[in-house]
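Dear U.,

For the methods section draft, I wanted the exact inputs and outputs in one place so we can describe them consistently. I've listed the two proteins in the order they'll appear in the manuscript figures. Please don't edit the token lines directly; just add comments below if something needs changing.

First protein:
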Amino acid sequence: MDAFRHLRALSLVAALPILAQAAQTPAHDFWLEPEQKRPSAGAVLGVKLLVGEHFIGDSLPRPAEGVEEFEFLHAGGVSRVSGGAGESPAGIVVMPANPAGLLVYRGGGASVELALADFHRYADAYGLRDAIDKEDGWREPGPFSECFDRYAKSAIGGAAAGGLSGKSLDWDFEIILSTLPHSDAGDLRGRLLAEGEPVPETLMRLYRQGEPGLELKTRTDRNGAFAFRLPGHGHWGVMAVAISRAGFFASCDWQSRWASFNFDWSP
């Protein structure tokens, strides 16, 4: 895409961050993109891995390593999203008899290096300044190295996937949606969790595909809960990030966790 250029990869994982040229802000948002929003039973569904910002991104090939979980959860059980390293789309899955469910991806192992000015812009863009301030993150002159893990979900079948969207997978970081929009009701409610526990006071960002200028924001309450009123139909994605100092033996300065959940709301 003309609006983005790739940052240098610092690991074997193929999930590369992207840098927005206009604002020079690193874009780490990561999400799953099913090639069909409402596949039929028996359909072979391709699933892309996308990275970018404002719900606009570049498709990435399947990483050679670091993929911890890539599955389709449905009423009949669990189907693996299969694929080989370097393939794009990153995976395919055959839809079961009831094709409503949840695509899930958990992976990590990538890192990137940022100059001090870019680190400041990054903190402002993603609501991370308070978290970095608490750990005296601005003392060093930079550059800063960041390791990150990614946790993505995508609801298939609209509101019919609601029974799975509200269940925690006990991941290190995840978004659950207790209500998916249906009919004419555009209410979206959910929680942000870390290992099943609420994550309070964290910025949640909501985007509609094809409308980069539309960005809705809120913060989780003390119970990790958040709510949005959607202004209309479309394919929506809600995203969050948390950052902390990396451990003493880590190969980077900061450890971040990125979560996304996208879904389709049709008339």
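Second protein (the one for the lower panel):
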Amino acid sequence: MSTTSTIPGPAKPADDAVGTPKEPALIPSLGRARAFTARIDKRSHEDPGVRAALRRGVGKDLDAVPFMHRYVASWLTDEQTRSRDVQRAFYTVASLIAAQRRDQYTAAKAETSKKSGSKDQPTGEEATAAEAAPDTPGHPADRPEDADPGTAKRIPPRSLGHAFADGVIKGGQAGGLRETSAETRLNLLSRQSVDGLHRHLPGAVRQLRGSDVEVDWAQLLIDLCQWRRRSGTVKRIWLQDYHRTLQKDGERRAREHDDDQSDAADAADATDTDSTDNGANPEA
């Protein structure tokens, strides 16, 4: 009796394992990332329907967010649609931006500055990038290859490590983060796989935004896009930025303390000199 053996077929490859373009073609430039995040920020602030649709995607898989495609899909290049990691990064960041309080959007702050006539009004990198990308589906500006790259240079990217350090520094004033809590959260994120990172990010961002700590959404988008291949580099940068920012703040506070001490000593010396002069010259 003859027997036949079944030869197993090839295992199904992961989305990012076959036919994926080289990394440089997948990772958005800082200018393009800023254009995307600025547009999402502006639309979420101005349109409650957009905000509701996008924030429903927090913590959900790509296949469970059909209501987000209208606002995100047109920003993906043909190459990026072949990488699940990159798509997921765009959708995750869009949902996190929309999940902020309405008064925390960059667009809301710019609007407030205009009404108050403040000279400190943002120079408009986010607004400029957003205006370069109208909402018309398929419009070339909906998928800018590098929307105003010069503006990206004016605002240096700030990693999530910077954000957590800012929270700790703010904690020394009011409403910020405790250093132990911030460092624990950052270390937890740094140890995650792609799935784990996306699972833990919403809680981390809520912690930061709850303390009114700014998040550089564009840089976070870029970091998420390349986490699978360059997580070691990204997490090193996060942790270095965190500790270096805290160290610089400590040095700044030490200098201010020394200056205050010096000013107090100078004032005391001046007082002593005046007292001596007045004692030597009774007619004064």
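Candidate sentences for the figure legend, describing the second protein: The domain at 156-269 is CATH 1.10.520.40 (Peroxidase; domain 1). DSSP finds 13 helices and no strands in the chain.

Thanks,
Y.
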